[in-house]
Specification:
By secondary structure, the protein is mainly alpha-helical. The chain has one domain. 68% of the residues lie in helices and 0% in strands. α1 (19-42) packs parallel to α3. The longest helix is centred in the first third of the chain and has 24 residues, at 19-42. The chain is globular. Pfam families: Phage_holin_3_3. This is Holin. Keywords: Membrane, Transmembrane, Transmembrane helix. It comes from Methyloversatilis universalis (strain ATCC BAA-1314 / DSM 25237 / JCM 13912 / CCUG 52030 / FAM5).
Length: 110
């Protein structure tokens, strides 16, 4: 069995996407969503399981989108991590902002 060259990626990269880094960034975004939900509860809101799941899922999706955008624009990993954490904390709000901007450019039908 041939040995792997030292500079070869551990995870195969499809279409220029580093899936291991992407997974790490989504995990950071999910943690941002957890922090955001805990802050929501600290303000006196009642715990709701489905709202918690929705909140954290939105955080993961927002972080996934931001991680892909950062990888496509060759943003450094530390800055990508910060962006994903903030995206996770914003969650559905960030998804709505991105959606509005894309629609304003006329690339997506309403």
């Amino acid at each position: 069995m041939p040995s792997r060259p030292p500079d070869a990626p551990v995870v195969p990269v499809a279409h220029g996407i580093d899936w291991l880094t992407l997974l790490l960034m989504v995990a950071i975004a999910l943690w941002g969503g957890v922090v955001s939900y805990l802050r929501y509860l600290a303000k006196g809101a009642r715990f709701s399981f489905w709202f918690c799941v929705s909140h954290i899922s939105s955080a993961g999706l927002a972080g996934f989108c931001v991680a892909l955008l950062c990888q496509d624009n060759h943003v450094s990993m530390p800055l990508t991590g910060v962006a994903c954490a903030i995206a996770g904390h914003m969650g559905a709000e960030l998804i709505k902002i991105i959606e509005d901007r894309v629609r304003a450019r006329g690339k997506v039908a309403p």
